[in-house]
Design a protein that fits this description.
Elements (H helix, E strand, L loop, with lengths): L4 H10 L11 H5 L11 H15 L5 E7 L6 H13 L4 E6 L8 H13 L9 H14 L5 H16 L2 H13 L6 H9 L6 H8 L6 H7 L9 H17 L3 E6 L14 H15 L3 E7 L1 H8 L5 H8 L9 E2 L5 H18 L13 H7 L6 H11 L17 H13 L1 H4 L3 H13 L5 E2 L2 E7 L9 E5 L4 E7 L5 H11 L2 H4 L3 E6 L8 H13 L3 E4 L2 H15 L1 H4 L3 H11 L6 H7 L34
Parallel strand pairs: 1-4, 1-5, 2-3, 3-4, 9-10, 10-11
Antiparallel strand pairs: 6-7, 7-8, 8-9
Length: 620
Amino acid sequence: MIATTSTIDELIKNQNPFAGHIVVRPQQIWGKSYPDVSSINAHASNAVFDAVENIRNRKRETVGITITAEKGLGKSHIISRIRHRLQAEDNTLFIYMSKYDNLNQINYQFQQTVASSLRAFGNQKVMQWQEIAAALINDAKKCNYTPQQYISNIYPTWLNKYSSRTIDSLTEAVLKIKPDVNNPYIIRAILWTLSTTHAHYATYWLSGLEITPTQADILGLPNPKNEDREAEALSNVRQILDITSHYRVPVICFDELDNTNISDTGFTAAQIIASLAKDLYNSLKQGVLLLSMYPNTWNEQIRVLPQAEAVIDRLCSEQTDRQPITLKYLNSDDIIALVQQWLRDFYQENNQNPPYPLYPFDESKLKELGKGKPIVRSVLKWCAENFTSFILPDDKKSSLHPVQSYFDSELTNVETSIDSLMEEEKTISDSLRLGFRSLIGETVEGVTILSIENIPNQEHIDFKIIGNDKKVKIGVDVLQQAGGGYVTAALNKLTDYRKFHLTRGCLVRSKKINNAAVLARQHLQKLLQKLGGEWVLLQAKDIKPLLAIYFVWINCNSYGITEEQIFDFIKQQEIAINNPLIREILSDPSGQEPINLTDDELPMRIPQTVSSADSIELNL
């Protein structure tokens, strides 16, 4: 039954499915995607699907594909389509990288990306790591259990019966069929991912991050040395990909390569990733390498690389005639199909049946958009801006702040991905920095903020708040990593007031600091009790609005709004000035550790759950 237009119009006034959804974010790559019309630029996604099929059929081993398109033409939409199509199939792994925060340690960052990507669920509704772990055991033990059977039934029984000797035995069995693996601890860590109690720490270790000594002892994994991590990272990644590619075709995507950052060696992100992709192409047993960039980036950065011909040969296979795949502009039919798909999903989610599929838009106006070579982003932006204009008279059109709808949408995105965002130190730090920048000139908790400054040539203190005629200088460090060595290094910097010209150090963290990390605890006590520093509890509810407005800010060009409008919205909505986290950073220190910290320590005992898998023997 068709709903009354008054009911639908009321829905339209309150919900805009296009607002804030102009830019594809990693959450849409991994989670629920935006509505997709598979016929739009199908040639690009089909090239990847064909490459995977050729590798499965042993016609190819490794394929490199590069997609070039102007900003907003739909590159990330294509990658999202690829991810969701592959997720529904078997025999592939998907790895996605779009952040290049430290070009001087790109191998280490890539290892973290691989580990994070493989934490995402595959088609068996478990982590991709767990799919690989089950495949390794099945191969070594000549059995055929599903990952879920190992997780829910077999592993609890084995661990209860044999404790950590379970992993000793399985590692030994796997190494017999994988004699080329140089680092047996990688196999051991992968096998630990099937234990729900230990999976988080195993994947943390696989990302190259340090775990606490107690955790390392329980898992039987040696902690990496900070000074060696970049050198070891590429070797570790190669071994991980060698192991996984025996069971799945890895599809490795490098997106958002057009940033302006430059490494210490003078190369851009695109150039460094192109060189990394070339190395991976040479070492991968099988896989697809997919790069996405602007045409200018390709022509002005990739084609001028030393040994550019060798790089291009690996980034553009003969399948694409050794040329990048270019995306096409939308035509009128594409626009109608795109908008209709978005509206279909919107009305279905809200249990409404509109008068006609494009309601409330006028089809002729949508077709007119197709005359000027529009891009996906501009079409969605037009829809966001005009969604209510077809049903409201001019004097009744929304008086909302121009930032409001984008903020609301980003806040929804943050809500759905807050668990992973709580681990992203740089993102949290950048959102705090933006909040403090918006308060320059304001007095909060007795501090009149003058400026927000970076501290060069160090990696731990994120920024410095200068206030009260430069009498107040607060160094802020967001620290979510575990591991005594990393925490100790961070606290050592935060307590060096003289070197970094601080009057106060402020640690922002949600997790406990292990008592076994003696040196870290000593630095902590010095910070809190001798130097008048502070440990501020990082809570999801406090950081969510700051993250949401930060994501609006970094996408402001795509949204067609200005920084001035964003700062005006922050002030109008009191997002920063009344934020508990910001106020606590500026307030007088308590000298105490926060309460309600999360426990980042492994339990000391193996779970005592005995299941119906008693008949399954490990044969130690």
